[in-house]
Design a protein that fits this description.
Elements lengths: L2 H26 L4 H19 L4 H17 L4 H23 L5 H5 L6 H20 L7 H5 L1
Length: 148
């Protein structure tokens, strides 16, 4: 089986498994929502990164997914940014090891460590927007009242 096909099959099935495990874990322990959504979003960004020849799309995914996580999760944002950002270098290093393309170690492997920047940027941007929205909300108004 070609390496690219193997990574696609394992990556996609792993993504589906992480999603289902996250749903079950969040159902029984809602406090795990931040962890499960970060694992899923990170895995998805790493999976997309392997199929992408340019860096813009995976970086945009990390930035936008990070924003969602930062907006929804109310504590420990840095942990979730670290989890999401780690999947890009992890996928790159696994690809380099599986294909024996050691010449890509510095450019693609170590170069992918910059993926932590958009992950942290997105998470803390979401946190800032959430905090600003809470600060500017009129007294006595909750999100449930605003929706109706």
């Amino acid at each position: 089986m070609p390496t690219k096909l193997l990574f696609t099959v394992v990556g996609f099935n792993g993504l589906a498994l992480v999603f289902l495990a996250g749903v079950v874990a969040t159902y029984f322990r809602p406090a795990l929502f931040g962890l499960t959504i970060s694992l899923f979003f990170g895995w998805l960004a790493g999976f997309v990164n392997l199929g992408s020849t340019e860096v813009q799309f995976p970086i945009l995914l990390l930035l936008s997914f990070g924003f969602v996580v930062g907006y929804v999760v109310h504590d420990g944002e840095w942990k979730y940014a670290l989890i999401m950002g780690a999947f890009i270098p992890l996928s790159q290093f696994l690809w380099i090891a599986a294909t024996h393309q050691t010449e890509l170690f510095v450019s693609d492997g170590l170069g992918s460590i910059v993926a932590f920047i958009p992950a942290f940027g997105g998470v803390y941007l979401g946190k800032v927007i959430r905090a600003n929205g809470e600060k500017n909300r009129p007294a006595g108004v909750t999100e449930a009242k605003e929706a109706s």
